[in-house]
Amino acid sequence: MTVRVKISGTTLSVGRYEYNIATFRRVFLVSMGKAAVPMLDSMLSRVGPLLRNDQELRGIAVGSSLPSKADPRVQYLKGDHPLPGVTSQHAADAILRLLSQSDSETLVLFLISGGASAMVEMPLDPTIALEESTAFHKALVHSGLPIQQMNALRKHFSRVKGGRLAVAAHPATQSTLLISDVPNNLLHIVSSGPSLPDPSTVSECRKILRDHRASLQLSPDLLHFFEAAWLEETPKADHPAFRKAAWTSLLSSDDLCSIAGMFAASRGFHVVVDNTCDDWDYREAAPYLLEKLRSLREQYPRICLLSAGELSVPLTKLHGTGGRNQQFALECAKLLARDGLHGTVLSGGSDGVDGNSSAAGGVCDETTASRAEAAGWNMWNALERFDSFPLLEAIGDVIMTGPTGNNVRDLRILLSE
Questions:
Q1: What is the DSSP letter of 281?
Q2: CA-to-CA distance for 71 and 59, rounded, in angstroms?
Q3: Residue ranges of the domains in the chain?
Q4: If one looks up domain 254-416 in CATH, what number appears?
């Protein structure tokens, strides 16, 4: 893999950008998301030794865990996830207070990974209560909307998303380092793009709400918020805050596929990557990828088909335990059994958490349906109720890793030989 962060003398290189640490009076580190603590620790180990006694370093880390050894210059918060809570507002307030002290001699390093949309949140309208904010995020998660549309709404709802942290840090020099849980050409939606310019608009948000009013079921107060004449546009690329700002993807699902592909190739598989079905409904993605696997199997004796990205699983109000990866695996098991296909399918979240379950994902093959039936489970009922975890756990087909402290989207692996 390419090394994307380097130190040479007092110069910090991030991708193609360089920052001479000696020229700044202070350095602020703002780390948020599932990989917040390891990202911050890694940057501290590089930047810390470069600072003189008259230079200041301060930081905030809002992540899925607290460090075993805290740095006294850093405020640590264990973030709320998957929905914002009290800590989310405390985190947003602490970050805004820190950034308000930025000036032209400040370097702000934003270290952002997936999950920060919930971990750091403060409504743009201060009259919106925490309960309303939580309900808004929950409605989006359960809506089945594509991630671009969900994040357009999140950005315009929030004081800390859609580039507004970059504005809060102006006129500092800013560098955003991202562990991306989105396609590489959409970095502005990683954790709702708190420090990147936002191309989405208020009118776009209003159209999304009109088109999906029934599935979102937002309260009258939230609908009124998005229709209010005073609703501000998020900062765009021509905003002064971005004149001294840059952003770099450190790790993404492309790296995930590359590493998995090298691993499979070393074991004699012909590897194909197909991310076409990113953001598709899982019921469309499953037959698409299985047909692709069947077609490739006619050409190669051993085939490994990789597909990264996140699938859509629209939930009903009454649903069981599982997540999009386990739901996809179970849908594949149904199709494998129905069509008499041979293959093995694994689908998992790189963060180690799938939906509201304790699993990272699930695995299936052509025997999954018969094994489930023999164990007294009805696979079709489990699919209909979005209750995949109990069935897959009962027959030993869940993938359990625990939280990984990282997040570069989901990976689907389809094997046939």
A1: B
A2: 9
A3: 5-251, 254-416
A4: 3.40.1480.10
Q: Is there a contact between 313 and 331 (Cβ–Cβ < 8 Å)?
A: no
Q: In b/e form, how buried is each residue of 102-111, taking b as 16+ CB within 10 angstroms?
A: beeebbbbbb
Within 2-69, residue ranges assigned H as helices are 36-47
How many CB atoms sit inside 10 A of residue 120's CB?
35
pLDDT tens digit string along 77-99?
999 988 999 999 999 999 999 99
CB atoms within 10 A of CB 232: 12
Alpha-carbon gap, residue 362 to 345, rounded angstroms: 8
The predicted structure's pLDDT at residue 1: 54
Q: How much is the CA Rg of the chain, to the nearest whole Å? A: 22
pLDDT in tens, 122-172: 999 999 999 999 999 999 988 878 888 999 999 999 999 999 999 999 999
Distance CA 250, CA 177 (A): 6
Give the range among 114-118, 126-130, 178-182 with minimum mean pLDDT.
178-182
Q: What is the number of other CB atoms lying within 10 angstroms of the CB of residue 231?
A: 15
333 contacts 284 by C-beta, under 8 angstroms: no
Residue type, 60: I
Cβ neighbors of 339 (< 8 A, separation 6 or more) are 290
d(CA 307, CA 189) in angstroms, rounded, equals 20
Q: What is the pLDDT of residues 323-350, one digit of tens each?
A: 999 999 999 999 999 999 999 999 999 9
Please provide residue 255's backbone torsions phi and psi, each rounded to the nearest 5 degrees: -65, -40
CATH of domain 5-251: 3.40.50.10180
